[in-house]
Amino acid sequence: xxxxxxxxxxxxxxLAFSALLLACTNSNEIAPTGTGELTLxxxxxxxxKNVVLGSGTYQNAAGESFTVDLLNxxxxxxKLLRADGTHYTVPQDSSYFLIREAERQSQFVKLxxxxxxxxxxxxxxxxxxxxxxxxxxxxxxxVLDPAxxxxxxxxxxxSWNSGYIFLKMEGTSPQAPAxxxxxxxxxxxxxxxxGYSTPTFNNIHTVRLQFGSDKAQVGPSSSPEVHLLAxxxxxxxGPAQVSLATNPTVMVSPFSxxxxxxxxxxxxxxxxxxxxx
Length: 277
Prior knowledge:
The protein has helices spanning 2-26, 130-133, 256-263; strands at 35-46, 49-50, 58-59, 65-81, 87-89, 96-100, 108-115, 117-119, 121-126, 165-172, 185-191, 205-210, 216-218, 222-231, 249-250, 267-276.
């Protein structure tokens, strides 16, 4: 009887395994294998217009006109989102990027060795997280190098307590007060990660964007390019309205939090391209 029972158990086990194998073979949900690349393009705009440094003229929600002469910002800690609620986290050492309007190539964030699969959204930090901000200098290379002055002299780092500048935007406006030289400039240098030795405000924000009905299919032969918009008008208009006449220069001050709370909303998903190879 024991031998018969063992035979019946083995037969049922074999049939169950065969059924499972057949189901997997016929299923469309077999996980893809390998890795691929995904590119995030950050396209800086002002409403419906492209940002053109030095010559484009735009109007904010307060009715003030302005030009943009400089626009830089950090994005970091990138995650790619899946429909089932899971995500792929880009290795942190490879997840810091400085987007510069003056450097077209910097606006294309190429993520390599992404696990093959379908992604429906993206999440990232605007700025540099507090842990990396206080890490040993050996952990802060490339665009995070505090000594790197190659960005056309536009450093993105304060050497004192406040660390990295998350967003730097400068330009001119007829409504901005004239300086000693008669220039009507505005300067927004926004940072603040909470402070190292002395507490400061924390302007680190996380952006989460969904791709709507689009799906970014990543694989060895498929490299999607996701087109994101960054609307500088949102720097002036969000939870609060910001006036260039009233606040032409904002750096290390409590009001920087107002601007940071605005600019976190400047990012949106536009469209994507799929490149096969």
